Amino acid sequence: MKYVKEIVWIIAFTFIGEALNKLLPLPVPAGVYGLILLLISLILGIVKLQDVESTGNFLLDTMTMMFIPAAVGIMSAMDILLPVLIPYILMIVISTVVVMVSTGLVASFILKHSKSRTADKTKEAAV
Questions:
Q1: Which positions ≥6 away from 35 have C-beta within 8 Å?
Q2: How does DSSP classify residue 30?
Q3: Measured in whole angstroms, how far is the alpha carbon of residue 64 from the centre of its chain?
Q4: Cα–Cα distance between 107 and 115 in angstroms, integer?
Q5: Residue spans per domain, the chain
Q6: Which segments of the chain have a pLDDT < 50?
Q7: Residues 68, 43 contacting (CB under 8 angstroms)
Q8: How far is CA 91 from the centre of its chain?
Q9: pLDDT at position 57, please?
Q10: Contacts for 77-84 with beta carbons within 8 Å, 24 or more apart?
Q11: Cα(21)–Cα(75) distance, rounded to whole angstroms?
Q12: Handedness of CA 47, 49, 50, 55 (dihedral sign)
């Protein structure tokens, strides 16, 4: 019964995201609306992490299998993609490097910032 409750929460936020996508004239995918609403609900405590954690972890674990149909679709359209293959590969490599570098820099900043806050609290406690 726990998994049914968790999947209902996830489906509910997905449905709300779909509705917002139809109602709002913004170029935002429905899934993004749903994820943002779920995040806000988790932060505000409307939904507890335990209410979606197990099913969310299962969906993350099986996410790679969900890319198989897209990969097959790309392979079936290879004759269309062949003329633009080099620019696509170039864009993929450049964007991957940009994402990796920016993620590393942000993670490094967060770690340094959290360590300095922890050190400041430790100094205050010692005084």
A1: 13, 17
A2: H
A3: 14
A4: 12
A5: 1-67, 76-127
A6: none
A7: no
A8: 21
A9: 94
A10: none
A11: 30
A12: positive
Paired tokens of 98: 């940009």
61, 63, 65, 70 alpha-carbon torsion, rounded to 10° = -170
**Contact indicator for 54, 3 with CB cutoff of 8 Å:** yes
pLDDT number for residue 123 = 66
Q: Give phi and psi for 34, each to the nearest 5.
A: -60, -45
pLDDT value, residue 92 = 94
HSE of 97, CA atoms in CB hemisphere, 13 A:
5
The model scores a pTM over 0.90:
no
Helices 30-44 and 2-23, axial angle in degrees (round to 10)? 120
Q: How far apart are CA 30 and CA 87, in angstroms?
A: 29
